[in-house]
Fold this sequence. Notes:
Radius of gyration: 50 Å
Shape: elongated
Oligomer: single chain
Largest sheet: 6 strands, antiparallel
Amino acid sequence: MQNxxxxxxxxxxxxxxxxxxxxxxxxxxxxxxxxxxAPPRYRLTKLGEQMARLPIDPKIARxxxxxxxxxxxxEILVIASALSIQDPRERPLEARDAAAKAHERFxxxxxxFLAYLNIWDSFQRERDKxxxxxxxxxxxxxxxxxxxxxxxxxxxxxxxxxxxxxxxLTTKEAAFRRPPEIRQLTSSESQxxxxxxxxxxxKQLDKKQHRAQIRADxxxxxxxxxxxxLTGLIANVGMKSPDGNDYTGARGSRxxxxxxxxxxKAKPKWVMAAELVETTKLYARDVAAIQPEWIEQEAPHLxxxxxxxxxxxxxxxxxxxxxxxxxxGLTVLPRRPVSYGRIAPEEAREIFIRSALVxxxxxxxxxxxxxxxxxxxxxxxxxxxxxxxxxxxxxxxxFAFYHERLPEIAWKDAQGGVWGSEDSVRIIESDKADRxxxxxxxxxxxxxxxxxxxxxxxxxxxxxxxxxxxxxxxxTVGFDNPTYDAQQTAPSPVGEGRGESKTVTxxxxxxxxxxxxxxxxxxxxxxxxxxxxxxxxxxxxxxxxCYADGQPILLGDRVTIDSKQWHGKIVALIAEQQCDPSIxxxxxxxxxxxxxxxxxxxxxxxxxxxxxxxxxxxxxxRADAADVLKSKKHNVECVAQAMHADSKDTDNRGRExxxxxxxxxxxxxxxxxxxxxxxxxxxxxxxxxxxxxxxxLKTAERDNPRLLFLSRDDLMQHAAAHITEExxxxxxxxxxxxxxxxxxxxxxxxxDGVTLTLPLTVLNRISPAALEWLVPGMIREKIQLQIKxxxxxxxxxxxxxxxFITQFLSQNPDRNAPILPQLAQAIAKTAGDIRILxxxxxxxxxxxxxxxxxxxxxxxxxxxxxxxxxxxxxxQIQQQLGKAAATTFRDNTQEFERDNVTAWDIGTLPESxxxxxxxxQLTGYLGLQKEKDGRIALRLFDxxxxxxxxxxxxxxxxxKLQLKEQVKDLNKGIQGFTQAAMLLKHINAxxxxxxxxxxxxxxxxxGEDELPRNEKAFKEQIKRxxxxxxxxxxxxxxxxxETAAAYAELNGKLGKHPLTHLMRQRLQTLLAxxxxxxxxxxxxxxxxxxxxxxxxxxxxxxxxxxxxTAREADIQELEQMWQEKTDSLIKQGQPISDDLAAFKWxxxxxxxxxxxxxxxxPYPVSVKRLMKEWDGLNKG
Length: 1180
C-alpha cells in the first residue's frame, strides 16, 4: 500500500472511496508506474482529516499542523491567519511613500512573514495600554493599517486557536502569542570594586553579550518558524539565478521578488514565497530567506536523489558517488559525496575490485595484497625491459580473478564477523542446531529477516511500504537461505520517482527474505500471537520486534520518532499476521514477510523490516484492549479463510496434520511457548569499502589462507625467457661502482626507456661514449635504427640487418668508444671497400635524432638522494652541474687536503687514491692548486686532467716561494720590455709584465719536464729552474720584440682596407691580454709569422676577393667547432686538453697556408686534414 499522503500539494487529501471508480483508478496507477502501487481503497489520512477541520487553505493548514512539531504554534497561528485574509497594510496611491516609511517599523530584513508578527505584537501592545477603539483606529491610520482587517485578523486567529486547542495541537496557554518583552541591558553585579577603566570594559562586554543573546534567540526562532512555513509552501521555493535578478523555481518557473518586499534589494540566494502572482511578470509575494538544507529535511518524500560519477576514493577507502538532490526539477543540493555501496552494490563492488584491487589504488597491508603488488611489479618490469606489453595479463583477467573469489555481498553476524553468503548459511544452521531442541525444530521454520537499508540522506533506516498485493513478487529461497534481492526498491516515500540518472527509486535495498512459513507454522504463530491482551503475558514469536528498551512491539501501540517528530501507531505485525482492519487484511501484506508497519500522521504507512530499523520507534502508550481484540478477531477470520487453501500445499509437502487446530485460537491467556529468539542474525553489507573487505577477508582466510594470492601463471601470458638479467641488468658498472638502472615502457613519457641514476660526485667521470651502448638488451634496436638513418645505397650493404648486427656485436666492439665510427668500419669491411667511409658523412649521421628511449635518461642525485637534474644529454648536464660535481667530490674531512702549503712538506703525492663515500668506492686525484687569494693548497680532484692542470700551476707557485730572489729580479723587467709595451699599447703595462713573468716561470720551472710528486723531485726541479731561467728570459725577450715589430707593421697597413675589421678581430684573439701564458713555448717563434701572413693577405685581397671569402668561410667553420667544444668544457669545469689546445694553432697554420703560402708551415695542413684531425679528437 502506498504512502497515503498527498505528495504533489502537501494537502494530505485523497479521493474518497467509490466502488465504481476502483478499477479505473487502479488502472491509472498501474499505467503510471508499471506496477499496482496501492489497493483500490482511498480515504483521508489522519493528517488529511486534521487539515479538513481547519477552515483555511490546505497549504496553510499543513503549516499549522507542522507547528506542533517545531514548537512554534503561537507564531504560526498569527502568520497563518494573516495569510488567510487580505493584507492589513494599506498603500494608497496618493501616499505610497508615506505608507512605505510607516511600514518600515514592522519590516524584517530576512522575512516578510516576520513582519506580520511585528504588526501583531505592535497592535497587541497598544491594546494592552487600554486604548479606546477610536484611539486604536487612529493608531492604525498613523501606520497605514486597516482597522477592519486587523479585527478580521484577530477573529480568524481566535477561531484557528480554538480549533487547534480542540484538536489537541496546543494548549490554551501556548496558543495565544504575547508580545515579547524588550530586553534591558543589565550590568554585571561585581562592579563596585572596579575602577573606571574596568567598568567601561565590562560595560562594552555586557553590550556585546546582550546583542549576541538577542541575535541567537532570533536565529533560533527564525529557523523554527520558517521550517514550519516551508512544509506548506514547498512548491514556492526558488533559487537566485546566477546571471540575473530573477529566481528559478519548481518545475522550471522563473519569478521576481515583489518590489514592496523587504528582501527586494538584498535578494538572498534561496527564498520561500507565500504565493506567486502573475501580472506583467511572475512575482513572489511575502518571501523569506531560507536554507536549502531545510527543504530536504522537511519534505524528504518530495525530493529526488540523482547519483552520478561513481568512483573509488582512496583517501576514504570506499566507493563513493556524487549525489544531487532536486525538488520538482529545482536543484536543491548540486553535489555531495555519498557511499555508493548501499545505492548500487553490484556496480560499487565492481568499481571496488577494479580500482582498489586491480589498479592497487589503496593502502591495504594484507599479505595477499603485498604479495600480488610485488609480483605484478616484477612482471611489469619485464614488460618495460622488453618494451612490449605482452607479458602481464590485462586488467580484465585480474578482475575475473577477484570477481570469482569475492562474494556478491557480505553478511555480518551478531558477533561482528563478516561472511560470504555461503558461510552465513552455515553459521545460521550450526547455531540453530546447537540451541534448538528436537521438539522446537518442528515449530521453528521461518527464516530471519536480516536486510536493512540505511538511508544516506535522512539519517533513518525505515523502509516505505510498496506493492503489498498478492501480485507483487518477492524473490525467495528455501529454508534458512538468506538471499539478496537486487531488484527491490530502496526505502522511499511514494512520489520520489522518475527522472534522469540514477534516482532513489532505483536504489537497491539489502534484505534477506525467506520462503513463506508452512501452514502448520502459520497456525501456530497465529494462535500464539492473538490470545492475550496482556503484553506481559504474551509469548512472542522468534522474529518479533522490540523497542529499544526491550518491550515488545504490539498491535495498536502509540509510537513516536523524536528525530522526525512523527506520531502514529502500529497497524501491522507482519510475521504474526496481525493487521489493523483499516489497512486491509494480513494476507494483503504477507509478501513483506517480516517486520512491523506503523501509520504516521505526517508520513503515512512506514514498514520497518527488522529490529535495527525499528530501533528508532519510541512507545508512547499501549493500545486499548477493545481495539486489540477487534483486530485479533479480524486476523483470526483471515487466517481461517487461508487455512483451507494452505492444506493442499501441506499435503503435497508430506507434512503431518497440525497439532494445533483452529479452536486453539482463543482468548486463552496462556499461549503455547515459542522458540527463543535466535542470536545469530545476519546483516547484509555491500562489498565496496576497505573496512568491510578486510573484515570478510579475516574470516575467509581461516579456511583458505591463500584465497586471493596470485601466482606467476595467473599473471603471465608467456614465460618471457629472453628477458634475462644479463640482457637487462639492474646496475650499470663503472670503475667507481654500480649505479641503479630502471626501465619503463611508456612512449612520450619523460622516463621512457632506461634511466641511470648517478650521484653528483661521479658526474664528471662519466664518458659520453660509454653511455651510447645502453644495455645489451636494447643495443640491437638502437643499431638497427642507426642503420636505417644511412643512405639507401649504403644501407643495402647491411642486409639482412639482424644478421649484420649479430656479426658486428660478435666482434666485441670497444664499448668505451663511440658506436658510429666502429659501425662505419664494420660496414666498410662488409662491403670490402674502404672508400665507403668517405661516403658516410658521420657528422650528419651523428646529428640524426633517434627515439628518446635509445638514449640513457640520466638522473643526477645528491648524497641525500634528492634529484638535482634529469635529461638525456650528458654534456648539457655536465655544463650545468660540472663545477658543483667537482666541489662535491672533494673530501670534507681534510684527510687528504691541506690549506696554506708553503714548502714541500706534504710527502709523496700518489697518482690516484681510492676512498669510500657512503656505499661507493671512488677514485680521486691529488694536486697542488693556487687559490683565489694566491695561497697554495692541496686539493682532491675528480678527474686526472683537472688534477694535472691545477698541479702544474700549483708547483710553479710553490717554486716561486723557493726562488724569491730570481723572481724578484725577473719582475724588474725583460730586455726590450719598454719598447714592446709602447707598441702593444692596447695591453696594460703591468698586466703585460705579470703575463710575461708567468710565461717565463712556466717554461723555466717546468717546461716539458714531468711534474714533481715528492720532495726529492721538487728539489731537483728547483735546481734545473735556476740554471734555465736566464736562457728562457733572453729567448722570450727576443720573441717579444719580433712580435711587437710585426704587430706595429700590420697595424700601419690596416687603415680603410675591407679586411680591417676582420684583422683587428684576429689581433684581439692572438695578442689579447694574457696572450703570453696562453701561447705554448713552441708557438712563440710563429707569432711574428702569423702577423706577417695577415699583412700579405691584405696585399693579395684585391686580386681575388671571392677566393679570400671562401677560404675564410672554411676556416670559420673549423674555428666555430673548436670554440663550441672549448666553451662546453669550461662550463663543465673541465680542463682543455693539450690536443684540443694544439688544434687552435693548427688553424693558425692553416691561415698561413691559405693566405701566405710563401711563408711556409712547419707541417702540412689543409681543411681536409684538419677535419680528419677533429674527428680524431671527438673519438678520443
